[in-house]
Amino acid sequence: MDTKTKHFDRTTADVGNIVLLEHVNVTQPDQRPTTLFYVVALGGTRDPYIFVGLENMWVNYGRTQIHMPSRDPQPQVVRGTIGFVVPDLEALKKRMARVAPALKDTRFAWTDKGFCVEATCPWGNRVRCHAPAPEFGDTELGLAYVEFDVPPGSADGIARFYTEILAAPSKVVKRHGAPAAEVPIGRGQRLWYTETREPIPPYDGHHIEMYIADFSAPYKKLLERGLITMETDEHEWRFQRIVDPESGKPLFEIEHEVRSLKHPLYARPLVNRNPLQTNTAYQRNQDAFRGKY
Asked: Staple 76 to which of 46, 99, 131, 206, CB 3.0 to 4.6 Å?
């Protein structure tokens, strides 16, 4: 027996049942300003294999995506903030400034907060971009979190819902001085449900998608409560209402597209470009993003 064996805190590598927050889905009416913001400014990469026409667009960020089906006339807006990790905040700021003139007649705006960049997409979706940091694992490019604005008094019940129904060990923390349900996901992603006294718009149908390890037990618990809204196929189901598992009280509404790890799209390799590459300052063999995601 090797008495010099190192001892590690193995709990630091534990993950809950939610393995990956893979995409956020919001509709948009015009791919041109959408491309300027999500591809040119944020540095994403339009998926070259799926939905390359005008009916939808998938934009890759590391191993995650934003899905943006084309719908007229009203775009969907997440009731909160979408958080990204990007490899270079200074380069991001330059790209934001570059697209600003072309987006002047939209809802586009951006602010340098120092520790992050906050921006609003042409259709009103709020994003927050961070440099790589230990709180996001070793990710240098990707969808890091979605932070939803929820009514006062709902954080405790939402944390119980994810812990007891989805087997994602969640807790209530302070975010921006307010209670928030923190839901851990995989290698450093999170969902936050942060309480606010500001008015919350009506739900418009946008959704998030996640992969979970134990696919059947949460399904049964949701089915018993009448919360399953769609039986997609053998590897996917959906629900929309978050309720307090103790009282059954509805707390928040956001469609969850839930997939098993046997879904054919799970761990699909995604193409990611190097947004610093240009034709006038071209560097050979640097077309692809070579960081961690």
From this structure: 206
Domain membership of residue 118 (yes or no) is: yes
Tell me which residue range forms the domain holding 108: 15-260
Closest C-alpha among 136, 88, 93 to residue 291: 88
Note if the bond before 73 is cis, omega within 30 degrees.
yes
**How many domains does the chain fold into?**
1
| pLDDT, tens only, 188-220 | 999 999 999 999 999 999 999 999 999 999 999
Looking at residue 229, its amino acid is T
CATH code for the domain in which residue 250 is found: 3.10.180.10
What is the gyration radius of the CA atoms in the chain, in angstroms? 20
Q: Is the pTM of this model over 0.85?
A: yes
Q: Which residues contact 193 (CB under 8 A, 6 or more apart)?
A: 147, 148, 150, 154, 155, 158, 180, 181, 183, 242, 252
Give yes or no for a contact between 115 and 89, defined as CB atoms under 8 angstroms apart.
Answer: no
Extended strands (E) in the chain: 18-25, 45-46, 58-61, 64-67, 80-85, 109-112, 116-120, 126-130, 142-150, 171-175, 178-185, 189-195, 207-212, 228-233, 236-243, 250-260
Question: Can you give the pLDDT at residue 13?
Answer: 83
Q: Is 158 in contact with 165 (CB distance < 8 Å)?
A: no
- Let me know: does 22 contact 210? Beta carbons within 8 Å: yes
